[in-house]
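Pasting as-is:
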Amino acid sequence: MAAVWVALGTAAVVIAEAYWHPRKAPDSRRVILVADAAGLAVFTVTGTLLALAAGAAGPVAVLLGVVTGTGGGIARDVLARQRPLVLADQIYALSAAAGSVVLVVLTDAHAPAEVTRWGAITVALVLRLLAIRYSWSLPRLPSRSRIPAADRVPE
């Protein structure tokens, strides 16, 4: 239930920002990314909790939590005709996975439910916000053109 209040609060802040600053476009991307980070954290935890409640094993619950958390962002980006953040080299699904793993570990350790939920939301949200703030990204594999010819695998 707390996750619903976080989502509603986030929506209210975004709507208020859009209402009071309708023509302020330069920093609107950051507002959307912060709201998306909150949604990612809340929906990741919700998906993981539902998977655990259905009797899924820990790794399956983590996978379902990540899919649930990233699904909304993918839908938003597809509707906006943008490249989904989860497919870019940003730390997006990784923050969802971290929050989901924290939830599963705390649940297995029989931590109080509120501590478990808020701990997982905090981990996913803070990791994503730090990734946004400091432009963290996942490492890229070297392209074929950068690999010396002698080290290339023949096709």
